[in-house]
Automatic annotation (TrEMBL):
Gene Ontology terms describing biological process: protein deubiquitination; proteolysis; regulation of protein stability
Keywords: Hydrolase, Nucleus, Protease, Thiol protease, Ubl conjugation pathway
Organism whose genome encodes this protein: Pseudoneurospora amorphoporcata
Top EC class for this record: hydrolase
Pfam name, any one: MATH_2
Cited InterPro entries: MATH/TRAF_dom, Papain-like_cys_pep_sf, Peptidase_C19, Peptidase_C19_UCH, TRAF-like, USP, USP7_ICP0-binding_dom, USP_C
Gene3D superfamilies the UniProt entry points to: Apoptosis, Tumor Necrosis Factor Receptor Associated Protein 2, Chain A, Cysteine proteinases, Phosphatidylinositol 3-kinase Catalytic Subunit, Chain A, domain 1
UniProt protein name: ubiquitinyl hydrolase 1
Chief localisation class: nucleus
Superkingdom of origin: Eukaryota
CC terms in the record's Gene Ontology section: cytosol; nucleus
GO molecular function: cysteine-type deubiquitinase activity; endopeptidase activity; metal-dependent deubiquitinase activity
């Protein structure tokens, strides 16, 4: 976690003074900007005179830790007489230092405190200060007795003076009661006598080599100051930022990344494309760049952002991923040529001509810090030869037998860009934990790698390297911060890249400050804690170094220009920039515009749900969505109507807008037409009652009739010549429920007089639908009013519209139906038995109920239990009231599978993994499955409410109830490969039946073909018990891990359990068990060196991974310490009957159990 925040306020920090307010906490110390020294003790030990300016300067201006070069020293004394007559605020005479004017600022009676306050400030007049002026000053203010210069009081500080911070000093310089009338601190005289004192200002102007010396970084612009930008920290991604900056400034690497073909895959899940985007933004942006696109393409979630990972592992995985992206391109070997060298591991016999060796590629070198003073010693340590003699002789084959030999490694070549990982973190056996090594460890600007190469290596070019980058860790093992020092140009400056901040750096900061070890004073002495001799250790030290071969520097640091970037990348950013600019402009002008959502006859006819439309959808989502207009608030309704009419292809005179309002029943319906077209859109919006939308919502009506002058004839709200408004009819909307297609469609609108009967709507509907003058015999029309989504009521044919309380904007729904013994076909109808038994809805009210409970459910094949190729992902529109059996029928019908053979699983919303299987219950519905009772509480928070996994079973669910499901871990290659299988075994079966099911499911050779299979249980990463072949499966514990493996040949026929020992894995402490445990055969009299060979074969772990394992006997007692084994130990004699054999090595899966997971890159 990044907890080294340089901008975090210190609880003891001095408050920054401004010209208006000079308030500073007493004896405050700002760790970065101010160092105050209290002088009383020093005065007693080394008395000096205030008039001895040279000696006093050495006394009050101590050496600075930053060691900035001194440009000039000046001393100025202000003689003050008549102290009691001074004003509240006084300025001393202006004097020059460093070519700039300065003066002393005095508050003789205190700046809102009971002490005198003294400051140093620049002496510029308001209009004289140079633009962006700054000056770094170390200074001291000394108040002394003019009659006795041995009596004085002083404070020292350093500060970066700017226009904004024009003065700096000490609000609590000295208590007023100590100034006059009493001897000062052991002296016989006071500081002030005869109402007079002197104040001397010692001003040391120092060089600001980096431009940020003592900078507070308020309003700091990295691009403007350095030409470079930083990377934003997402949480704990400073380690990633430092590595990315290092790779970015390896210019040849950047060019290679740009050459990866991504124009056909501009996906944010493609890590090569997102890395290209990141590099391009670092190249062109004026502000810090975010890494979120890149980390998302890695597949990282929020929890990964707050976990610091190993930089070396991240670098290797990133290189591997980029190499994969380059396969099949002309540059597929470019990264290896740049970053990869060759190293030979050998065992060479001393007395006979026999050598065993292997040559491997390396991408970085891990160097020991512990025990070495510098880089060259670490390299020498790395290639140090180990002599194998005595009992440790090397077996050189049947010809030479056991021989004395030298074992070691030697480099055959180094890469052009050499990454060196300094092992600052190591396991401390004494403390039994990982520790950071803070010892001083030096590394050079240049070094010659030739001494570390084998004799016959290619030396046609010098193997000299120069430093290009230093990646730094500041902090301890558990908390810390990462940043980088890089030199972008061959002969350029060093810069510090600290997340989003980039600053120029001095060579001292790059080298000395990152060697680690104790702080050193400018004179070379080690800084210690006050009153103690304990040295103060630096928290920061280099952990990764980047060197470039000197003969290849020009090639590696080749300039990267705009033309080197992929054209499609430049075009994409140009498009995104234009889109951002358009959005910015839209935001700036947002207050000038308002949205208008228009429902038309066409959109209503495309709408298949309740009301006239859904206002929260867009036309690209739903063809029935309203048409959206963005218009000026001051536009008139007449201008708005003209725009809408143009889109409808109509004369604006024939288009009339109705205000749509929210009714009390939460529906939105047309209320009344807008008669005054000279109103502005904003005025109209304001007058619309109870608006719940940020946009104006209207219905656009098109007149069906016009008079001879082309003026529209409106059936209602027709304006007369005398100005009166005639309202003869009400506006109704018609919807048709099509029983055949099981859809609801808008038909249009009609005007009807209130005194008309409901049955008078039938001829109107027949005409609208084009069904002729009457329907076939026995077929009628059923009419309903859609009052609101949850209330659809039948209309009585003989009643008038007024009696049925119909009004403007109401919706009438109708459908055709077969009704017997009915004269008009109005009212209730009963569906046939066939219709009831099918899924077809024959009644509009049933369909409205379906709409109310309509749910789109996504069905995905189970990731472990279904064939993705055979069974695809699909979506179904279902009713949330649908039963489990009906759900199975629907899914079975879609994938052409018997519904009895389908099993469903809910889905974990956090990680997408399957949850438990859904139980088939009589009261189980789609709603209860997806949102079970208590949904939203802790146990259901992570369940998806719109998706299910499905599995196609070989047997029916009924038969499945007779089986026991057992998850078995099959070990096919030692313990390194674990395959998981879910097996179904008859509940009355035994372990032998389980083995037969495993052979069939895993498609592995039978026991007769490949050897006996044994089954055992593991609990808490330790072997629990072997399961006899006749052991009933119903008794297998559900809380243990069931493991199956082939019985090794050496164990065939061994029956005595005392010849076995339980083996388990742990990290540092036996209580931190991990990995797969197993039983291992031990042999009487066998040295552990031979036992290890059998263990290596049994484990399936080879090479360096096996060499890193430490072996120990672990007693069964809870707090016993492990007894680590040597090659000459005999396990059979060392271990007792109940002991374990522990394998101590790093748990690569530990973070996965804690929620982190191993470092991975997906995209």
């Amino acid at each position: 976690m990044d907890d080294q925040n340089p901008q975090a306020p210190s609880p003891n920090a001095m408050l920054i003074d401004t010209p208006e307010e000079h308030i500073v906490e007493p004896n405050g110390v700002d760790n970065d900007d101010v160092a105050i020294i209290t002088p009383e003790a020093d005065e007693k030990e080394a008395p000096v005179l205030a008039t001895d300016y040279k000696t006093m300067k050495e006394h009050v201006l101590p050496a600075l830790i930053d060691e900035p070069p001194i440009l000039e020293d000046q001393v100025h004394t202000w003689e003050i007489k008549g102290w009691r007559n001074l004003n509240k605020k006084e300025h001393g005479p202006v004097f020059q230092a460093g070519g700039f004017p300065w003066r002393i600022l005095l508050f003789p009676y205190g700046n809102n405190v009971d002490q005198c306050s003294i400051y140093l400030e620049h002496g510029f007049e308001a209009d004289e200060m140079p633009e962006k002026w700054s000056c770094c000053v170390q200074f001291a203010l000394v108040l002394w007795n003019p009659n006795d210069p041995s009596v004085f009081h002083h404070h020292s500080a350093h500060h970066r003076f700017t226009k904004e911070e024009s003065d700096w000093g000490f609000t609590r310089f000295l208590e007023l009661r100590r100034l006059f009338n009493q001897p000062y601190d052991g002296s016989t005289r006071p500081l002030g006598e005869n109402d007079s004192v002197n104040i001397s200002a010692y001003v040391r102007i120092v060089e600001d080599e980096t431009g940020v010396l003592w900078h507070n970084f308020n309003n700091y612009d990295s691009k403007q100051e350095t030409g470079y930008v930083g990377l934003k920290n997402q949480g704990a991604t400073c380690y990633l930022n430092s590595l990315l900056q290092s790779l970015y400034f390896t210019n040849a690497f950047r060019k290679i990344i740009y050459q990866i073909p991504t124009e056909q895959d501009e996906s944010m899940m493609n890590s090569a494309y997102t890395l290209q985007r990141l590099f391009y933004q670092l190249q062109t942006s004026n502000t810090a760049v975010a890494t979120s696109e890149l980390t998302k393409s890695f597949g990282w979630e929020t929890r990964h952002i707050f976990e610091q990972q190993d930089v070396q592992e991240l670098s290797r995985k990133l290189m591997e991923r980029m190499e994969e992206k380059m396969k099949g391109t002309p540059h597929e070997k470019a990264l290896a040529q740049m970053f990869s060298g060759k190293i030979k591991t050998f065992i060479s016999c001393i007395n006979v001509p026999y050598e065993s060796s292997r040559v491997e590629d390396f991408w970085d070198v891990q160097l020991n810090v512990s025990g070495n003073k510098n880089l060259l010693e670490s390299f020498q340590d790395y290639i140090q030869v180990e002599k194998l003699d005595g009992e440790n002789q090397y077996y050189a084959g049947d010809e030479y037998k056991l021989q004395d030999a030298n074992k070691g490694v030697i480099f055959q070549s180094f890469p052009d860009v050499l990454h060196l990982q300094l092992k600052r973190f190591e396991y401390d056996i004494q403390r039994d934990t990982m520790m950071k090594i803070n010892a001083r460890y030096e590394f050079p600007e240049e070094f010659d790698a030739a001494p570390f190469l084998e004799k016959d290596a290619d030396r046609s070019e010098p193997w000299e390297y120069e430093l290009h980058g230093v990646l730094v860790h500041s902090g301890d093992l558990n908390t810390g911060h990462y940043y980088a020092f890089l030199k972008p140009a061959k002969d350029g400056n060093w810069y510090k890249y600290d997340d989003d901040k980039v600053t120029k750096a001095r060579k001292l900061e790059v080298l000395e400050d990152n060697f680690g070890g104790p702080f050193r004073l400018p004179n070379g002495q080690i800084r210690t804690l006050p009153q103690k001799k304990t040295p103060i250790m630096r928290p920061n030290s280099a952990y990764m170094l980047v060197y470039i071969r000197k003969s290849r520097v020009d090639q590696i640091l080749t300039p990267v220009t705009e033309e080197d970037t992929p054209p499609h990348l430049r075009n994409r950013f140009a498009e995104e920039l234009a889109a951002r600019e358009a959005r910015r402009k839209e935001r700036e002008e947002q207050h000038l515009y308002i949205g208008v959502k228009v429902v038309t006859e066409a959109t209503f006819q495309q709408h298949g749900g309740t009301d006239l439309t859904y206002f929260d959808v867009t036309p690209d989502q739903d063809p029935g969505a309203p048409i959206y207009y963005r218009v000026l608030r001051q536009d008139t309704l007449e201008q708005l109507v003209a725009k809408i009419a143009a889109d409808l292809g109509q004369d604006p005179r024939r288009v009339r807008l109705w205000i749509m309002v929210n009714r009390q029943n939460k529906t939105v319906r047309p209320d009344a037409p807008i008669m005054d077209l000279q109103l502005t859109v904003e005025e109209t919006y304001s007058k619309a009652t109870a608006q719940r939308d940020e946009s104006l919502r209207v219905w656009a009506e098109v007149a069906e009739e016009v008079n001879e002058d082309g003026e529209p004839i409106w059936p209602s709200y027709q304006a007369q010549a005398n100005g009166a408004i005639v309202k003869d009819n009400i506006l109704l909307f018609l919807k048709w429920f099509d029983v055949e297609s099981q859809t609801l469609k808008g038909v249009g609108h009609v005007y009807v007089r209130l005194d008309k009967k409901v049955e008078d709507l039938v001829p109107v509907i027949l005409k609208k639908m084009g069904w002729g003058e009457k329907l076939p015999s026995g077929e009628k029309i059923q009419l309903y009013e859609e009052i609101k989504p949850t209330m659809v009521e039948g209309l009585r044919g003989k009643e008038t519209l007024k009696t049925e309380e119909l009004q403007d904007g109401d919706i009438i729904c109708f459908h055709r139906t077969h009704v017997h013994k009915s004269r008009l076909g109005l009212g209730e109808s009963k569906p046939s038995e066939d219709a009831k038994s099918s899924d077809r809805l024959t009644d509009a009210r049933e369909y409205y109920d379906f709409l109310l409970h309509r749910k789109v459910v996504r069905f995905c094949p189970h990731p472990q239990k279904a064939d993705v190729q055979q069974y695809p992902q699909f979506e179904l529109v279902l009713s949330s009231k649908m039963s489990y059996d009906k759900l199975s029928e629907k899914v079975g019908e879609h994938i052409d599978v018997e519904p009895t053979h389908i099993r469903f699983y809910t889905i974990n919303g956090a990680n997408g993994n399957p949850r438990t299987a859904v139980k088939r219950l009589s009261n189980q519905t789609v709603e209860r499955i997806l949102t079970p009772p208590g949904y939203g509480q802790m146990n259901h928070l992570n369940q998806l409410s719109d998706a299910l996994y499905y599995e196609v079973l070989d047997i029916s669910l009924a038969e499945l109830d007779t089986k026991k499901s057992i998850k078995v871990t099959w070990l096919s290659e030692g313990i390194t490969k674990e395959d998981q299988y879910d097996l179904l075994v008859t509940k009355s079966g035994v372990v032998e039946d389980l083995i037969e099911a495993l052979v069939k499911k895993a498609k592995i050779p039978s026991e007769e073909e490949a050897g006996q299979i044994r089954v055992y249980e593991v609990s808490n990463n330790k072997w629990y018990r072997d399961l006899d072949r006749n052991y009933p499966v119903i008794s297998i514990n559900e809380y243990t891990t069931v493991v199956a493996e082939r019985k090794p040949e050496e164990e065939v026929g061994v029956i005595d359990p005392n010849q076995y020992i339980t083996v388990f894995h742990f990290q540092n402490e036996p209580s931190r068990a991990h990995g797969m445990s197993f039983r291992f055969l031990i042999k009487e009299g066998e040295p552990f060196s031979e036992t290890k060979k059998r263990l290596e074969k049994r484990l399936g772990i080879k090479g360096k991974s096996f060499e890193k394992i430490k072996f120990a006997v672990v007693r069964r007692a809870q707090f016993s310490r492990p007894i680590y084994l040597q090659d000459d130990d005999i396990l059979y004699e060392t271990a007792e009957r109940e002991d374990y054999l522990g394998l101590d090595h790093v748990d690569r899966s530990r973070s996965a159990r804690n929620g982190g997971g191993d470092l991975f890159l997906k995209g």
